[in-house]
Amino acid sequence: MSLHDLPTLNACLNAASAGLLLAGYVLIRSGRPEAHRRAMLAALACSALFLASYLTYHFHVGSVRFQGTGPIRTVYFSVLVTHTVLAVAIPPLALLTVVRGLQRRFDRHRRIARVTLPLWGYVSVTGVVVYWMLYRL
């Protein structure tokens, strides 16, 4: 795997994280807390691997300019700005949510998870969208 394969890896890790978040939600709603725990820890691992890979790539390559023009440029930057702003909040929110769950403080875990899950899901999905628009359009 070369440095230039990392954006594709990052998109795959974001997609896996999104899928695991959805699976974790379905599992907890289905009354399967142990499977939920495993899915959410796997989502956290995917997101952590993504962050390490993302930082490595951009440390070596720098920023990558969007080449699109016209209305698609506005769409791209709208998605990118919301993705980036929310992505900053995800690591502390995700860690706090996971810690509360592992500590079995389920009332506090549930309260913060109601915020963390949709934001983390949005960031994971829009990460794939940003990749697609930046590298595949």
Short description:
The protein is an all-alpha fold and 137 residues long.
Task: Report what the structure shows.
The chain is mainly α. It has a single domain (3-136), classed as Four Helix Bundle (Hemerythrin (Met), subunit A) (Up-down Bundle), CATH 1.20.120.80. The protein is built from four helices and no strands. The chain has helices at 6-29, 33-61, 71-102, 106-136. Helix 3 (71-102) runs antiparallel to helix 4 (106-136). The longest helix has 32 residues, at 71-102. It is elongated and about 50 Å long. The chain starts with 5 loop residues before the first helix and ends with a helix.
Produce the secondary structure layout.
Layout: H1 6-29, H2 33-61, H3 71-102, H4 106-136
* Number of E-state strands: 0
Shape from CA axes?
elongated
Tell me the CATH topology.
Four Helix Bundle (Hemerythrin (Met), subunit A)
Biggest β-sheet description: none
User: What is the CATH homology-level superfamily?
Assistant: Cytochrome c oxidase, subunit III, four-helix bundle
Give the % helix.
over 70%
Class by SSE composition? mainly alpha
Summed up, the domain count is 1
- The helix/strand series, from N terminus to C terminus, equals HHHH
Strand content: under 5%
Quote the distance from N terminus to C terminus. 23 Å
CATH architecture: Up-down Bundle
Give start-end ranges of low-pLDDT stretches. none
Query: Using only CA atoms, what is the Rg?
Result: 16 Å
Helix count equals 4
Mean pLDDT: 97
CATH class: Mainly Alpha
